[in-house]
Amino acid sequence: MAVFKLDNVEDLYEIGNVLGSGHFGQVREVRERATGAQWAGKFLKLKRGAGSRLGLERKSVEKEVEILQSLQHQNIMALKDVFESRAEVVLIIELIKGGELFDFIAEKENLTETEAIEFMKQILEGVRYMHQKNVGHFDLKPENIMLSDKHAPKPDIKIIDFGMAHRFIQGEEYKSLGGTPQYIAPEIINYEPLGTAADMWSIGVITYILLDALAGCQFEDMQQERAQLTLEGKETYTLLSGLSPFQGETDEETLRNIVAMNYEFEPHHFSQTSNMAKDFIQKLLVKDQSERMTAEECLIHPWIMPLNRTQIAKRNRSSINMKNFKRFNARRKWKMSFNMVSACNRFCRLQLLCKARGPEQQELRDCESDQEDTGTKPASLLRRRLSSSS
Ligand code: ATP
Where does the Protein kinase domain lie (predicted)? Predict the structure, then answer.
């Protein structure tokens, strides 16, 4: 068992504002008392006992730490230190000040396809590096792609959240049901042995979403893209989707669409998109893992690395409709907060239930950050770090 530092983290670091929250804890700004240097602290709640349903297994945190310790790359969030107490583990990580890539793009007045490709290139460089180290991320999505400093002339991409990452060991099979429905590969849904190719599928989905949103599509016109989100089977909210090429009206339908490879380049969205860009996506959204482009291959694909002037010119001609991207991103954020509110509602109900049941359920109350989905839908099964990985 890995031993983390047992010092009280607050003796060494001043704890500041909350930067974000995940399923198992919060990320906060921290300042090292000795040097004044700024870092981020990821506070992860641990399971209290073998029977506890809430919090993280210590071995799951050890896995995340071991993987982060082994990765040193400009495009991957760095880990500095790890502290533990009885109830939580605190990861001291590189402070990433620039926010999410998609928010940065949405703030810009204009962006060329070439600039967008520059960001894709950095994502691919980070992914190629981790795959060379036999690490798969398994949760690549826009929320986990951040920027070092949005005011820098050329901000660095930083890939975050290695909570679902896995290091492959030769000869050992790995299966997992974890991930976020819109971004997961068919082999995850089918519970087949996995490889790093699953990340490449997610890169295909992210690229599709980026180009879809940038392509000047008129969301208001697309009634067929309306997705119904049902909250607790009672209230129904309607919103426009545009989130994933496989987006269904429910998570179950999204998963079915992925397995059936049910996606297309809507002419209305993609008429301005270069064939090179479409070819890039098509070579990633491939059902057979062994046929999917690797990160290495992506980096030499002509869309990323044009071979001649004609290819460069084709890239530069594609302009980006920022108005639509802003609208798309606002909707994506809205959907994320909708999901968070829905998770909080579930948590509040759990707390009430727990109060009614008495002190033996106390741990439920104490773990304020846990929003684990207890539903039986496939999407809930796929949410986070499940014990079904082998
Ligand atoms: P999830 O349950 O969504 O997988 P998690 O508990 O593993 O999340 P992270 O995704 O790592 O937590 O972080 C949660 C949020 O905190 C991120 O979405 C991001 O907004 C913010 N965040 C994470 N790491 C950093 C960092 N190094 N610097 C600044 N903000 C960060």
Answer: 13-304
Residues 293 and 171 in one domain: yes
Closest CA to 158 of 147, 149, 172, 171: 147
CATH of the domain at 276: 1.10.510.10
Give the distance (Å) from ligand 1 centre to CA of residue 355: 30
* Total count of domains within the chain: 3
Indicate if 109 and 201 belong to the same structural domain.
yes
Based on the residue annotation, tell me whether 103 is a catalytic residue of this protein. Answer: no
What's the whole-model pTM score?
Answer: 0.81
Nearest CA to ligand 1 atom 6: 22
1 assigned to some structural domain:
no
Residue 230 lies in a domain: yes
131 and 232, same domain (yes or no): yes
Minimal-distance CA residue to ligand 1 atom 5: 22
97 CA: nearest ligand 1 atom: 29
The string of pLDDT tens digits covering residues 151-199 is: 888 899 999 999 999 999 999 999 999 899 999 999 999 999 999 999 9
**CA gap 145, 131 in Å, rounded:** 17
Give yes or no: residues 274 and 152 share one domain: yes
Is the CB–ligand 1 distance for residue 23 below 6 Å? Answer: yes
Q: Binding site for ATP: residue ranges?
A: 42
Contact 94, 77 (CB under 8 A): yes
Ligand 1: does its nearest atom lie under 6 Å from the Cβ of 56? Answer: no
Closest-CA residue to 389 (of 159, 67, 68, 168): 168
Structural domain harbouring 379: 332-389
Spatial distance between the Cα atoms of 46 and 194, rounded to a whole number of angstroms: 27
